[in-house]
Amino acid sequence: MHNLGRTRSSQQSNHLLLTADTFVRTALPGMKACSAVVHAGPALGTKFTEYTAEFEAGGELGGTSAQRFIFVVEGGVKLEVNRKSKQLGARGYAYLPEGLHHRVTARKASRVAVIEKPYQALGSVETPKLIISNEDAVSSHPLGDDPSLQVKCLLPDEMSFDFAVNTMVYQPGASLSMVEMHVMEHGLMMLEGGGIYRLGDSWYPVTAGDFIWMGPWCPQWFGAIGKVPAKYLIYKNWNRHPLAGPQR
Length: 248
Ligand code: UGY
Ligand code: MN
What we know:
Blueprint: E1 10-11, E2 15-18, E3 32-40, E4 49-60, E5 67-74, E6 77-81, E7 84-88, E8 92-96, E9 102-105, E10 110-117, E11 131-134, E12 141-143, E13 146-153, E14 163-170, E15 186-192, E16 194-199, E17 202-207, E18 211-214, E19 220-224, E20 230-237
The structure holds (2S)-amino(carbamoylamino)ethanoic acid and manganese (II) ion (MN).
């Protein structure tokens, strides 16, 4: 049925909500049998890029000059790096340092969240190394003292990393304990369930498949609604002084 121009998607100066009905697919250089739904990038004012790579069977991701983080949302991919080959199933992820040549291919139709960011070096601190893992292998901790809101940090707590990627799982009825306002920006992919996201001065119903960008100091709060837990994958810039930059 025609929706007469209505959508939950919304673009505002300090946040963006993109719902699947408004996704537009595009090819990025080097992609084969694969397309990208670009959710956020410098054209929006961000310091990172995030997109969903949608692979057909036999598809391949293109290259990047930046550091890259991939998270398998659905299906599975083969990662070839350092003359080794590794299969990443659902919830498998990898951190690929800037300049490390690699190939990502899919034998079956798959969806992968891809985050890319030019690396911001930190004096003499050594640059981060390759990581290949699965979210299932990471232990969770409660946010604050609320056991109904569990966080998994997918990257190590080390200053060498200039960004963080976490998953957050809210039991039905759980919420952030405060309206957060902070210098970091976020890229957020709703993976399961849903609820209400406060972004700036608006409250949005959100559900699995949605993407949200939150700019620096964007007021943000989430409460999970429904009978199943709500889960999202969330990026933030991290570990760098606010005066650091430009990145290149
Ligand atoms: O890490 C965070 O800043 C996180 N608590 N923000 C969010 O969930 N909107
Ligand atoms: Mn936050």
